[in-house]
Amino acid sequence: MLTGGRCGVTVSEKTVTVIGGGLAGSECAYQLARRGVKVELREMKPQHRSPAHKSDQLAELVCSNSLRSDSPESAIGLLHQELRRLGSVILTSADTHRVPAGEALAVDRERFSGAVTALLTGAPNVTVVPGEVDTLPEGTVVVATGPLTSDALTRALEGYVGEKLYFYDSIAPIVAADSVDMTVAFRQSRWGRGGSDDYLNLPMDEEAYRRFVRALCAAEKVAPHSFEEPKYFEGCLPIEVMAERGEDTLAHGPMKPVGLTDPRTGRSPYAVVQLRMEDAHGTAYNMVGFQTRLTWTEQRRIFPSIPGLEHAEFLRMGQIHRNTFIDAPRLLGADLSLRAEPRVFFAGQITGVEGYVESAACGYLTALAVHARLTGGTFHPPPATTALGALYRHVTGEAHPQGYVYQPSNVLFGLFPPLPGRVKKADKRAAYSARAQADFGPWLDTVPGVASAGTQRSA
Ligand SMILES: Cc1cc2nc3c(=O)[nH]c(=O)nc-3n(C[C@H](O)[C@H](O)[C@H](O)COP(=O)(O)OP(=O)(O)OC[C@H]3O[C@@H](n4cnc5c(N)ncnc54)[C@H](O)[C@@H]3O)c2cc1C
User: Fold this and answer.
1) Which of 43, 67, 345, 410 has most ligand 1 atoms within 8 Å of its beta carbon, as the pocket-test mutant?
2) Is the pLDDT confidence value at 364 over 90?
3) 224 CA from centroid of ligand 1 (Å)
4) Which residue from 144, 171, 189, 368 has the highest number of Cβ atoms inside 10 Å of its Cβ?
5) What is the fold, at CATH topology level, of the domain defined by 171-319?
6) Quick one: which of 330, 403, 328, 385 has its CA closest to 362?
7) Is residue 351 in contact with ligand 1, taking CB distance under 6 Å?
8) Where are the domains of the chain?
9) Which CATH architecture has domain 16-166+324-453?
10) Structure pTM?
11) Cβ neighbours around 288 below 10 Å, total
């Protein structure tokens, strides 16, 4: 299935080491091998496993068997479509082992991972080497060890990046800007500091605030995994933990109204929910300090009780889990290699993308970057208007406003450049999708090895 040197360029005889045979590492190894590069794929299973990994296969889906919406009018569905056109091993194997799930692309997880494993272990340019990697090997290396990178390698990587990895990833919900009721929200920064338009404020009177706190305390929470000690930084506590500490804890914490005056009343509200711009174009807003372990159902039930969010469209719900990722916009160059050690590339969730498909997509881009480096070619990032381009803009930081604190993200329309002109809300998804599809084709023609390699149909 894999053949070498199809791109009409000389590929270095040196072997590239890909560490981690998850979604990103499998995609990256496959795409390199398909373009004639020899790959050693080092995977710590079955000798060592993270607490979330159970199977012996490559490309294991650790939780849901869904690769989410397959509709090209969703950002993730668009990413599916682009990966199919690129001949992604993850997407084509998912299609082959798809199970009925409405609009979602869900798979038979055993057959899916089995198919990817068979393709990689049977590939002439790939050698799968089991065992934990605890120091970076010589030569060109791709680190694709995911959110649960082993402790020994995490420590070794810290030596290269010069800072601590391993975070509790506190993810606050994100809302679509055009779904916030602007007759309630007001734009203001505390004490008028910074840009006056940087924050949207949702004011609450005392009664609404107390009702909200009671709802948080009574709500159903997600139980932490056994490997996730619920040990939070004081500055990063889940809202429900703060609510349980005292009725006014939130009003003195992330919901404090100091330095804010509601222009409609001329007074400071009792409490406030602040929304901070998530993308450079202000299409999406992050609920500041609203990291939470409430179940998504409870978040969807309770957050619309916040004045101004009655009809909010949530682009992402709040979460807290253990994660290992690097500050990619600062540490990586445009070709996803470490600025301080350019022979070391990164791929997958460790770069700060989130999700199975996003990680595979990142693995694909890294393979193109490594291939360009080895062949003396140029790595051409995908256009910003495509789903792959939006993800790339997230990792390189181009999609984010100045001062943005880098956090993992799924692919979202909020990461795309805004649509030109005025587009009705109901037409926006279709417009993003049409623009992406139009811009993807010309870029695809520049990607080495796609036309000749074709799309595999089965394992
Ligand atoms: C508990 C949990 C639940 C999740 N649920 C979902 C979900 O429902 N839907 C979704 O889209 N995403 C989910 N995710 C996120 C998803 O798992 C990741 O986005 C995706 O798997 C990342 O792909 P990756 O290739 O970067 O890492 P992984 O798929 O985790 O692959 C990394 C691989 O590297 C190996 N490895 C680690 N350290 C070493 C080492 N030192 N040496 C050699 N090999 C090593 C691991 O064994 C693993 O096989 C979840 C994550 C977690 C932790």
Assistant:
1) 43
2) yes
3) 17
4) 144
5) Elongation Factor Tu (Ef-tu); domain 3 (2.40.30)
6) 328
7) no
8) 16-166+324-453, 171-319
9) 3-Layer(bba) Sandwich (3.50)
10) 0.78
11) 17
